[in-house]
Automatic annotation (TrEMBL):
Signal peptide: none annotated. It comes from Modicisalibacter zincidurans. Belongs to the TRAFAC class TrmE-Era-EngA-EngB-Septin-like GTPase superfamily. EngA (Der) GTPase family. GTP 1 binds at residues 9-16, 56-60, 122-125. Residues 3-166 form the EngA-type G domain. Associates with the 50S ribosomal subunit. This is GTPase Der. The chain holds residues 1 to 166 of 471 of the full protein. GTPase that plays an essential role in the late steps of ribosome biogenesis.
Length: 166
């Protein structure tokens, strides 16, 4: 079995963009508005001779506490299922918008989850990495890892590191 990497985070942080890069497919819809990908989407990829499976999710906008309504609830459910199926969770946040309460709500769930979780700060293109990372330390999920999914910045390095134990 390939290691399974779940991409989670609130809408619009760049999960589908990263999914496309990791699977080199156009299967995941990438859009300028939040919440387009409502179901889980699976793709396979390969890096440094290692194969993996990636799960793209619709994102969790209102948190993951179980009181979400309608489509948000469905998306939160998809994310929880993806986390269950994964060996590795990449929790994406957005360096452009900075830390918002929805990120903290998701982090609260991930901190008590047993899955190996990596905090990934996307959209660092054009930003100074060190200062862009600073506020994300407060999430309590360890080192923030800067990437730019749409440019490929640090993506290969991150995935190499993530897959090292497998
Ligand atoms: P999702 O809702 O989390 O799946 O986010 P998407 O992958 O649909 O991306 C949301 C928006 O962010 C799109 O307009 C992307 O082009 C943009 N985006 C994604 N990655 C990056 C990045 O690394 N840098 C910048 N500047 N924009 C990005
Ligand atoms: Mg998406």
């Amino acid at each position: 079995m390939n290691p399974v990497i779940a991409l989670v985070g609130r809408p619009n942080v760049g999960k589908s963009t990263l999914f496309n890069r990791l699977t080199r497919s156009r299967d995941a819809l990438v859009a300028d508005f939040p919440g387009l990908t409502r179901d889980r989407k699976y793709g396979n990829g390969q890096l440094g001779g290692k194969e993996y499976t990636v799960i793209d999710t619709g994102g969790i906008s209102g948190g993951i506490s179980g009181d979400e309504q309608g489509i948000d609830a469905a998306m939160a459910e998809q994310s929880l299922l993806a986390i269950d199926e994964a060996d590795i969770v990449l929790f994406l946040v957005d360096a452009r918008s900075g830390l918002i309460p929805a990120d903290e709500a998701i982090a609260n769930h991930l901190r008590v989850n047993q899955k190996k979780t990596w905090l990934v700060v996307n959209k660092t293109d054009g930003l100074e990495e060190h200062s862009a990372m600073a506020e994300f330390w407060t999430l309590g999920l360890g080192d923030p890892h800067p990437i730019a999914a749409s440019h490929g910045r640090n993506v290969t390095t991150l995935i190499d590191e993530v897959l090292a134990p497998f």
